[in-house]
Design goal:
single chain; 433 residues; alpha+beta; 6-stranded mixed sheet; 15 helices; 21 strands
Length: 433
């Protein structure tokens, strides 16, 4: 990618592109069988000119939804479409609920025709831990502690690692056809926005993270389907780092799992290097950088390109705007998705049994069997409980009414506490020692 010189003229450039707000949703309905929208709507371009219904007037925001014709376009056909025929929009979600925003993201991915239209969705969540589609939440965080602290646990549809969201974190989702997916384009666009607005020199790491002074300020993940794709990432502005660290702290147990594991990285807030950075100004800066940049080339289209784009839209993610989004939200918030999708795993922890008559002295304590409690979990339900002893090839089953119940850290510690309280002599007899 050729190096580009970015002039810091963000505040001036903004006067050339208007902000258009849809204060009420157009009349729209979703044909559940065909999964397409059919409405007559009016929307506004960045120049303020009204356009009637047509090929781009059949979605809640006045943009084209998926059709059989667009699905049939080959990757080569899509790549041949010149940048001059691709328009851009910036959608700003008015919700701070993580499940609603994940549902909105999924709705756009499923329904929008992105062949001639790229979208950047900007969104901010209340405190939440968001894990990747194939991750084990119990290996990434302490689920019980999150619940006690009122922090949501969410599982997204894309891969990648666990991240913490709060009101000091800006989320960006880039939507485009799979044929035009370019993760580095998106990340470099954000880097350009940081420099143009604040003079911040961030860099792209080998792992496609945005880093500043060697520390991570942005994580990244993607969903690659057909014909659409999206790439989403975060920008740490003034996130609460104490809460971030505590929310991603795991339980002190040994977990064996084939789930995708996060790679811990030192992090930095943008306000750590520039105190003037704030969420709303950064949101605007990233949005304008997106609108002034052609669809596939990291060049500056300036005022001329800004005037051709669709501009900004404040998005109200409700069923009136996006029919069926409430059901999507319910799916993202459901226990079966957030926890039930966890790949099978096992948890182990060493325990010290309660001393009995045989263990009254120090010499006797040396004869106590060293053991671990092992819990096997499938679909976030306890499958079995056993004791793992040295010199025993197979774990010894423990009969418990906890089998079949949902697993949690608090539940596991309840099991270990109960076994710790058992008399050593009785345990030895039960195990045939």
């Amino acid at each position: 990618m050729a190096a580009m010189v970015v002039q810091r003229t963000g505040s001036v450039a903004r006067s050339f592109c208007r902000l258009h707000v849809l204060t009420s949703p157009p009349q729209a309905y979703l044909n559940q069988q065909a999964r397409t929208l059919a409405t007559s709507t009016t929307t506004f371009s960045s120049t303020g000119a009204a356009s009637g219904s047509g090929s781009e007037g059949n979605s809640p925001t006045g943009h084209a939804t998926m059709s059989s014709a667009s699905k049939q376009l080959s990757a080569a056909d899509i790549k041949r479409i010149p940048d001059g025929e691709v328009r851009k929009s910036v959608f700003i979600s008015q919700s701070n609920d993580v499940f609603t925003n994940l549902a909105l993201e999924d709705w756009i991915y499923r329904h929008f025709d992105l062949t001639h239209h790229h979208i950047l969705m900007l969104w901010i969540n209340k405190p939440a831990v968001v894990i990747g589609r194939h991750q084990n939440p119990f290996a990434e965080t302490n689920v019980s502690a999150l619940e006690r602290n009122g922090i949501e646990l969410a599982r997204r549809n894309s891969g990648g690692g666990a991240v913490y969201h709060d009101l000091g974190n800006l989320n960006c989702t880039f939507f485009m056809p799979r044929a035009r997916y370019d993760r580095k384009y998106n990340l470099n666009l954000m880097i350009r926005a940081l420099y143009r607005e604040y003079g911040i020199n961030a860099e792209l790491s080998d792992r496609d993270d945005i880093v500043l002074l060697g520390k991570k300020i942005s994580g990244t993940a993607a969903k690659l389907g057909q014909p659409n794709a999206y790439h989403h990432c975060t920008l740490l502005v003034n996130s609460n780092k104490l809460h971030l660290g505590a929310s991603l702290a795991k339980d002190n147990v040994e977990i064996t799992s084939k789930a995708t594991a996060s790679i811990p990285s030192p992090i930095k807030n943008l306000v750590d290097v520039n105190r003037t950075v704030n969420i709303q100004q950064l949101l605007s800066a990233v949005g304008y950088e997106f609108l002034r940049t052609p669809a596939t080339q990291l060049t500056d289209g300036g005022r001329e390109l800004l005037m051709k784009q669709r501009g900004f839209q404040l998005i109200n993610p409700t069923d009136k705007w996006f029919p069926g989004i409430t059901e999507l939200r319910q799916n993202f918030a459901a226990w079966d998705w957030r926890l039930g999708k966890t790949p099978a795993f096992s948890v182990q922890k060493a325990i010290q049994l309660k001393t009995g008559t045989m263990a009254s002295g120090a010499a006797d304590q040396q004869h106590q069997p060293e053991m671990k409690v092992k819990v096997d979990v499938e679909k976030a339900l306890i499958k079995s409980i056993s004791l793992v002893l040295p010199n025993h090839d197979e774990p010894i089953p423990v009969v418990s009414d906890m089998v079949g119940r949902p697993y949690s850290e608090d539940c596991f510690h309840g099991i270990t506490d109960a076994l710790k309280g058992a008399n050593t002599e009785s345990m030895q007899q039960a195990m045939g020692l």
